[in-house]
């Protein structure tokens, strides 16, 4: 009787190159789907940014190097001629000067008022209910839209408005003043209006920073005999410096591009006394139909904003 034969074990088939042994096609597809899932979630936002931001900016940059754009079927390449015309335009220099004054005064006043009100709301001398009332009053301008703010201040500064009535009552002025029509008062008037509308943003941010400062620092300074001013300059300001720099850079970018508040009150007048870069660019495009020159002006504003944005990002990275 012969012994039963045992079949020899079959050797496993070699794995295909590029696929680990035992990996199934379904599992590979699942792994690929997991890797692509985040890009699928980002795709709608990427498409919106491409259509609403990147493409319009690219079109405006292209327009700035041509002439007879939009209104003519044939455009002519002129290179940097539009930029030269804009930079040598006296009205552009006037708008740049007005924008610099308007932005500088507004940002400085936003910082001073915001820090002052934030310290008031952070003071232990005020009760909780009093702080709640003041916080509601101080933050009120931030809750209003630009259109409402413009209408409100036009009514307040009207020759027959509340401001003129109050100043006449105390004897500071002899007659009604047209604040938005006077050559020497129009720019200060819109600047005050912008200051009132923007200081709550500084106040809220600085209040959060003040509440994050440890009380031990103030106690240690008080033990060393430091006065209130020394504690403010050597404890409060150094602790708030990163927030102040970040807020100031953002406010410069936003304020330098302020358009609706100016347009709905003075429109850049009287006699270009409140002409800003934003209103200057708008008038070039939609009043004079100089779309190529308006595109060049818009690109110049974009470059200035990009420089400020670079400083802001570098500061944020250094802060982190």
UniProtKB/TrEMBL annotation:
Skewed-composition ranges (Pro residues): 1-17
Compartments in which it is found: Cell membrane
Gene Ontology cellular component annotations, sorted alphabetically: plasma membrane
Pfam families reported in the protein's UniProt record: BPD_transp_1
A GO BP annotation: transmembrane transport
CDD domains reported for this sequence: TM_PBP2
Keyword Transmembrane on entry: yes
Membrane topology qualifier: Multi-pass membrane protein
TM ranges: 39-65, 100-121, 133-156, 185-210, 231-254, 291-313
Family, similarity comment: Belongs to the binding-protein-dependent transport system permease family.
Protein name: Sugar ABC transporter permease
Organism: Terrabacter aerolatus
